[in-house]
UniProtKB/TrEMBL annotation:
PANTHER family: BLR5612 PROTEIN, SLL1039 PROTEIN. This is Circularly permuted ATP-grasp type 2 domain-containing protein. Pfam families: CP_ATPgrasp_2. Residues 77-452 form the Circularly permuted ATP-grasp type domain. It comes from the Bacteria. SUPFAM superfamilies: Glutathione synthetase ATP-binding domain-like.
Amino acid sequence: MGKFFNEMTADGLAHNASAEVREHYREFCGWLQRQSPDTIERKRAEADLTFRRVGITFAVYGDDAGTERLIPFDTIPRIITAAEWKQMEAGLVQRVKALNMFIHDIYHDQNIVKAGLIPAEQIYKNAQYRPEMQGINVASDIYAHIAGVDIVRAGEGEFYVLEDNLRVPSGVSYMLEDRKMMMRLFPELFARNKIAPVDHYPDMLLDNLRSVAPMGITDPVVVVMTPGMYNSAYFEHAFLAQQMGVELVEGKDLFVSDNTVFMRTTRGPKRVDVIYRRLDDDFLDPLAFRPDSSLGVPGLLSVYRAGRVTLANAIGTGVADDKSIYPFVPDMIKFYLSEEPILNNVPTYQCRKKEDLAYTLANLPDLVVKEVHGAGGYGMLVGPASTKQQIEDFRARLLANPNGYIAQPTLALSACPTYVENGIAPRHIDLRPFVLSGKTISMVPGGLTRVALQEGSLVVNSSQGGGTKDTWILER
């Protein structure tokens, strides 16, 4: 797998008994060595059975459309020290604050464009830009109420932000269920290690959503809006509604009357103040966006523009998590906050630039090339893992539409020991912490650790066969 930062041991080449275990993993490592393979295998089987019984699955699109897949769960946790988390948390607060200021700015005064820091066409020709939001004031000036920021570790252990997910970021239910499973399988580990809790996330989320209700609403009604049971993340939508104690609704359950959104109930219409929506902008209101959408609520945009309902996340946030905007986030932090970025971006080549395109074309076998509007690990080239033919096919796509791509060096992502068919072996991982923005910016300690289960693979996405791990933030 080459040289990489190993989360558990100081040996980046492999997992072996003689490697020096990092101090914060020693307690866990000692425990692991005392477990018999049969015990661990039995616990893993119990986890799979429970996840399947509870219905913690991921619907697959594409070739296997309609099938549901169990997201593989690994019982070796990813452990992060309190000091590492403190720095990461500060960087995440800084980054999300700047991103919210950026979205407000581009839909109002456009100061960052006037200052020449971001070319106007990068924003206003962006597929995620919504002109309908121009000049609209949203509650507390918050656009990305829930952000899932993907962080990777590379080099000697430095953290980098790989991408910002500000539209409808998913995965938090797996973070919560992974922790619940580890506590059920291995309660003794939680007695021996001071691990920061995450189970209060639904309460934090509900408080956060209630805090951004429209002006004058003292007891806001919150709902979770789902596209329906065929959506890949439907389990999560139902889970979060249940955990928060709020209604899970589809577009057909809501209607607009007197410039207000109402929910149909057995006791008659009930006013709705905050909608945690888990469907994309295009489908929200057939009168404003896609007229063929049967998932949305006719007239929703007019109520939203009038400030009589809050949508989380706001319409038009996607312009800030687009991969063509990502290279400018460090500039946003300096521009809006007058601070140096705490968390670095991955170095990025913008193929719309002549010199960056030339470099990318000359180094395709060594780079990762991504579609600027792509997501879920699709539409990308991982140069070192691609055949010559795949590289040449991608070269043609790049030449045909250079504006549609960015390129990055292939990072040697950190790896964590993981159970695979032939025992324990290192597998590459990332981390998605979930950042809540309301009256304050807050998050539970940790996030969802995703793991690429294929040997040598750098693609951790669930849709591409990735698995998950529990993430432990030590409190000492």
